[in-house]
Structure formats: C-alpha cells, structure tokens
Amino acid sequence: MKDKSVKEINAIIDSISTDEYLKYIDILKDDERKSVKNIAIKLAKKLDKIRAENERLELINTFENEGYEKGYTYIGGIDEAGRGPLAGPVVAAVVVFKPGTKIEGINDSKKLSEAKRDELFDIIRDQALDYGIGIVQREEIDKYNILNATYMAMKKAINCLKKTPDYLLVDAAHVPDVSIDQKSIIKGDSKSISIAAASILAKVTRDSIMYEYDKMYPEYGFASHKGYGTDQHYKAIREHGITTIHRRSFLKNIL
User: Fold this and answer.
1) What residues does the RNase H type-2 domain cover (predicted)?
2) Hey, which residues does 93 pair with through a beta bridge?
3) Domain topology for 72-203
4) Domain boundaries in the chain?
5) Residue 1's pLDDT is what?
6) 118 is in an annotated binding site
7) Is 64 flagged in the annotation as binding?
8) If you average pLDDT over every residue of the chain, what do you get?
9) Exposure winner among 71, 101, 169, 199, fewest CB in 10 A?
C-alpha cells in the first residue's frame, strides 16, 4: 500500500467488506504517512462501532431466545405510543420476528430520530414474520380511561396478527384477559428486539395520524408536539378551545 496515494487508499477502503477491516488496519497503521495512519485509526473506530452494535443486537435477542429455549415458537413483542398526550389516539403494536433476527440501529423509538424511525418502520414490516397495529380513539379513552384504552389497543394489535403468538413480551405491563403466556419487561423497548420494533411501529403510526390532524387543526401545532401538553399546546387550547380529538378526561381543569 506504500506505493498508493492517500486518495487511492481511501478508494480501496471504501470498497472493502467489514471482514477485511482488520487486515487493512494492520497494514495501514505501519505506514510512515500520518494521513494513512489516520485512515487506519478511523477504520479501527468504525470496526469498534460495528462490533459494539453486533453485541447489542445479540443482547436484545436475549428475552426472545429465552422464550425459544422454553419451547415457545411464535413470540410477539408489544408496546404502545400515546398514553400521555392531551389529544389523539393511543396506538399499540405487536411484532413477531423469526429467531435470531438482527436489524441494525433498532432501539427504543424514543432514542431514535424521526428519520431513523421512518427508515426502520419499513424495514421492520419487511422483516417481520407478522405484525399488528391497534388504534383506540379519544372517545374510548375518555369512556374507559387511558390504561384500559391502552390494553384495548394492545388486544386489537394482537387480533390483527395472522397467527396468535404463544408468548408475549410486553413493555412494563401485563395485558389482561388474554390467554397467552406473557413476560413484562421494564424498559423492554430497549432490551427486546420485538418490543423495540413494536415501539417504532406504534410511534410512527401515531405520529402520522397526528400529522393528518395538524392539517385539520393547524392552529394547534399537532405536527410539532403530537398532542402532548406543551406550552404551545395549552396556549392554543386557551385561545381556540378544544377539538373533537382532545381527551376531555385529560383536560378537566380547563373545561
């Protein structure tokens, strides 16, 4: 490589596979040129990130793998989005993957940018063996309370599946009146790949709904706060009143 220019070396590095990184790091680190040594350092850092991500992806399959070891064969992860907002629906999702699935970058939806969630939304739907999404609107939230409405959304999501799971991994909850074995996992959306996937499907679906509501009620700013109780949102409520999508049970002090 010593007869290659820095530009030529960069071109070679851009074309190699991950499996070749270590070989080229060993070659480039002994080059006398500082710029070439820096390429080796950057490549080593990139390799470290790849290894760390692979380790994380192995780790977030732990609960699924434990389920398979117990004899379960169709494991679904469940999560929801929208329990806290003053307006809009609560949305739940359930995702079933084949054993050992790895999707780079998948994580708790709250830890991801909107662009990354949107990207993963399509990847998850493409790679999932099965998925379902359940939506419960404002009227039912006010009638049954948000906790029960959340469970209703989760049951709707399960009912959308092509096949009923024999084991459910649930983010910090237990779905009542469901005859499926369950495991509640605190912060499960960052510890289980199927729950993380469900959190992304639920979040992206709900956000898309709130974008549509923003077109209907542009003065409320739903596109920016998604119905949560921000200063902007409370100010709009005081100035314009409540809409048909506002949760009356959440706004008793204002009504």
Assistant:
1) 73-255
2) 79, 133
3) Nucleotidyltransferase; domain 5 (3.30.420)
4) 6-66, 72-203
5) 76
6) no
7) no
8) 96
9) 71
Token pair, residue 228, equals 């949560």
Alpha-carbon torsion, ordered 208, 77, 175, 207, to 10 deg? -10
Q: What counts of helices (H) and strands (E) characterise the chain? A: 10, 5
Determine the pLDDT at residue 202.
Answer: 98
Type of residue at 140 = E
Taking alpha carbons only, the member of 131, 43, 139, 142 closest to residue 93 is 131
Question: Residue 48: exposed, middle, or buried by beta-carbon count in 10 A (0-12, 13-18, 19+)?
Answer: exposed
Q: Say whether 239 counts as a known binding-site residue.
A: no
Distance (Å, whole) CA 53 – CA 104: 7
**Tens digits of residue pLDDT in 62-98:** 999 999 999 999 999 999 999 999 999 999 999 999 9
Joined together, the tokens standing for residue 62 give 């732990």
Count the Cβ atoms, other than its own, within 10 Å of residue 222.
Answer: 27
User: What secondary structure, in 3-state letters, does 239-253 show?
Assistant: HHCCCCCECHHHCCC
Are the C-beta atoms of residues 210 and 80 closer than 8 Å to each other? no
Q: Could you report the per-residue pLDDT of 187-229, keeping only the tens digit for each? A: 999 999 999 999 999 999 999 999 999 999 999 999 999 999 9
